[in-house]
Amino acid sequence: MCLIGFHWRPGGPVPLLVAANRDEFYDRPTAPLAWWEGGRLLAGRDLRAGGTWLGVTREGRCAVLTNHRDPRKAKPGGPSRGQLPVRFLEDRRPAAAFLEDLREEAARYSPFNLLLFDGGELRGYESHQDRLLSFTPGVHAVSNGAFDAPWPKVERLKAGLAASQDDEAALLALLGEAQPCEDARLPDTGVPLAWERILSPAFVRTGTYGTRATTILRLGRDAVSMLEQRFTFDGPEARTEFRFQKG
After folding, report:
1. Domains of the chain, CATH where assigned
2. Dihedral sign, Cα of residue 151, residue 166, residue 212, residue 110
3. Contact 124, 147 (CB under 8 A)
4. How far does CA 153 lie from the centroid of its chain?
5. φ, ψ (nearest 5 deg) of residue 154
6. Closest by alpha carbon to 7, among 130, 161, 107, 139?
7. Phi, psi for 44 (deg, rounded to 5)
8. 215, 22 in Cβ contact below 8 A?
9. What is the mean pLDDT, run by run of 10 residues, along the chain of 247 residues?
10. 88, 129, 148, 180, 209 from 28: Cα distances, Å
């Protein structure tokens, strides 16, 4: 998952709205959004390492993951970061307690950002700085840098999410923006300038790598809705939607 926008409204009828894109190599095998064995966890699945990038439970727990882009700190052969959301969703501990324990082993993984909602509290973690976060009510976003870092696509998503939070078509269009950013505003994450340019829009598309899924998740007080639009190199592939009562 490479771009997450979220609107945190702890006192509202929909405490958490998430609008996100997952970027990945087109040849990496992936299962679409579905209920996993046991019927408690709803998520897509990475069929190579077995984890996920975004998922929810019937009780209303939620976990979303992005990689932190810094080639110098990558750990080839390390454990899959996609297992971290699964571990939280299968857990019963509050998000803050889960993250405190995770800090002890986070250095084993390539850098990541993790957003966790335990049904009451929303927490974040940036492993590259070993930084725990809580969030003020309002709109936030993260890509492959720090939470709310002023990357152009992060800023555009935050502005669009604030204006279009109840308009599903507008949110999908926002996450489908594919115009690269001008070079002067690009972040410097340690990859060549040509790649910074390619990765700068919300929707990424190259010959081998790009946006594979767009997800809109609404975690209400009583009900949850989740939409996943999947893509291949050739364009939109299929769409899956789920709605269920929390319980």
Report:
1. 3-245 (3.60.60.10)
2. positive
3. yes
4. 14
5. -65, -45
6. 139
7. -75, 170
8. yes
9. 93 96 97 95 96 97 96 89 97 97 96 97 97 98 97 96 91 96 92 94 96 98 97 96 95
10. 24, 29, 29, 24, 10
Residue 4 contacts residue 142 (beta carbons within 8 Å): yes
Quick one: which of 143, 159, 163, 161 has its CA closest to 151? 143
Axis crossing angle, helix 152-164 with helix 168-175, rounded to the nearest 10: 170
C-alpha–C-alpha distance, residues 109 and 135, integer Å: 24
Please report the pLDDT score of residue 1 as a whole number: 63
CA–CA gap between residue 229 and residue 214 (Å, rounded): 5
Compute the C-alpha angle 71/209/131, nearest 5°. 40
